[in-house]
Amino acid sequence: MDDSNRFTRRQLFGGFLQSQLGLPTPSRPSGSEVTTDDKAAKVARSARRLFPVIRPPGAVDEATFLSRCTKCNACVDICPHDAITHAPLALRSAAGTPIIDPAKSPCRMCEDLPCISACPEQALLPIDIWPIATARLLDYNCLAHQGSFCTVCEEQCPVPGAITLSEGKPTIHAAACTGCGICHFACPAPTNAIAVMPLALDHGAAPKPS
To answer: Structural domain tally of the chain?
Structure first.
């Protein structure tokens, strides 16, 4: 095999890697023009800079959410519990977009879900609404699991069966949990015993449809 054939194969393999990794394709020699979809390339670059956050109920997948959300504040303004706030500047691509911080104000799971109805850009949709996050119990911080008596998380949880007690110790059942964050907000332990993680950090969670 001559050098020209080996070089051609390297080019083909390089092109395959570029397509798989979402890297820009180098320009072709004149006579073989290939146009580049700038918008698709921009979305691909943005997808590599996504920050895991907890979105309001009904949020589409993160990349689509960022492309649709105009930061109009409609969902923020209509939330009756002030549970929806703005992502801080430190989150860069997500800065200014609506998020839920359960440590400050968890989602109260309104029956009519006004945040979804208020969204004019279809960044929030009335499909696949729950879960919005994943709650995890940190046994080493939990008062009940460390020998004290505490049932606050089970008492405050709005979803039947999401938190159960066994011999006075709570267990969170992921299949029933909506990720609302009320248990985290209510936890009285000196170091909060419940972590509420964005779905992007829960490897077992399926991505939401756009």
So the answer is: 2
